[in-house]
Description:
Blueprint (H helix, E strand, L loop, with lengths): L16 H14 L6 E9 L7 E9 L2 E7 L10 E4 L3 E5 L1 E6 L16 H13 L3 H17 L2 E8 L5 H6 L4 E8 L8 H14 L6 E6 L7 H14 L2 E6 L3 H9 L3 H6 L13 H7 L7 E5 L7 H7 L3 E4 L1 H6 L7 H7 L3 E3 L19 H11 L5 H7 L2 H6 L17 E5 L7 H6 L7 E4 L2 E2 L14
Parallel strand pairs: 1-4, 1-5, 6-7, 7-8, 8-9, 9-10, 10-11, 11-12, 12-13
Antiparallel strand pairs: 1-2, 2-3, 5-14, 14-15, 15-16
Helix pairs in contact: 5-6
Amino acid sequence: MPPAPRKPVGWSEGPSFPRFIQAGLAARLLSINPPRSILLRARHVVPVASPVLPDGALRIAGNRLRWVGPWPDAQPGADEEVIDLGDAILLPGLVNAHCHLDYTDLLGQLAPPRTFPDWIKSILAAKSSWTEADFVRSWLHGARQLLDHGTTTVANIEAQPHALALLRESTPLRIHSFLELTGVRLRREPASILDEAEALLDSLPPHPGGVGISPHAPYSTVPELLRLSAEHARRRGWRLTTHLAESREEFDMFMYRRGPMYEWLRHQRPDDDCGQGSPIQHAARHGLLGPDFLAVHVNYLWDDDARLLAHHGTSVVHCPRSHAYFRHQRFPGQCLAAAGVNLCLGTDSLASTRLGIGTRPELSLFAEMAELAARDDTVDPAELVRRATLNGAIALGLDHELGTLQPGLLADLCAIPGRVGDADVHDAIVHHRGPVTTTWIGGAPAAHAPGSAITPQHA
């Protein structure tokens, strides 16, 4: 077994959790198989970037797709493994463009908020009572849920990065870890925050995912931190992401210097950046907007904001269930799409997801697609599937590697039950409930990979 990954800056050997993380890492390393050729057949294959293939198939060699087409054209080799998935829909692995894995176990722990600042105060209070092991368990629960529900790549916000090196190695998920930066409450200098963030990210071992930085939001940072974050990220070739224009309170703070958020924060941060335009305009002034920037939420627009986002090539990540939880105004998806903005989907965290009657919500992009379909019937089901796959890959700069089923791309895919007609395939995907039947990442089945070996009782 190779040596354990080098520990990142700030690593702390907690009372027990490294033991069960390392157990999962060992299980993952022992499960690696040599490259082989596999042919998967399904009732429907959904490449996303091209038409649905009834009775389709795809060939995997090593970690990549080598052929995609109709089953009659497959011509299996004599020594090739053939797996017939039967009445199934085979599609690319889902790309979750915004998630907070370490908040998974906060589901149902926060009272419904009266205002958005009330919710922020509630989650800060809840987090203050958690130990490092609590955050790790929560992160691992979330990673397990994503795998169970077909996600193969996730852009995750890392607010508790101490065990990040081992956490990333504990799951087959492609984790794109965005280190969260604030600085208002602790009044730290932006330059020192960025230097420390770079040192921590540089200390992480190589991983199939990526890294980036996430200045939390305009209201929880100062302009200098936004500007330096953009400079550092682009110098290093990293992606950037920020919660932006999420709430009416944030919009009123920056547009009009008023409202609950402005009153709460006016004595905690300088307010000379307020009253100068919308949050989108604020982000543009400080250099955030660009094709390497993921703007998360964007629920409140002003005037030319959509065109501004499109002009800079910025992707917008919509989190439908979180949007419903906070009862925001109707998501301006039509306006953004008409302007040419790349729209993708995220789960956000379960801390901002309503408990259902008789059901327990999990981190599932299928649930996000269904939520958006229920609230906006103008979005075609095929477009919803695209937002959960290819568009997320575009936002992360990975559309040359994943997000569609094409020869040469990584063999990341999932399958769901689907005894449906050809015309109903995308609708069946959007309204799928429960776990997927299989998930493959890099040409290897992931359904029973390390997540199942890493559970809190092992602590």
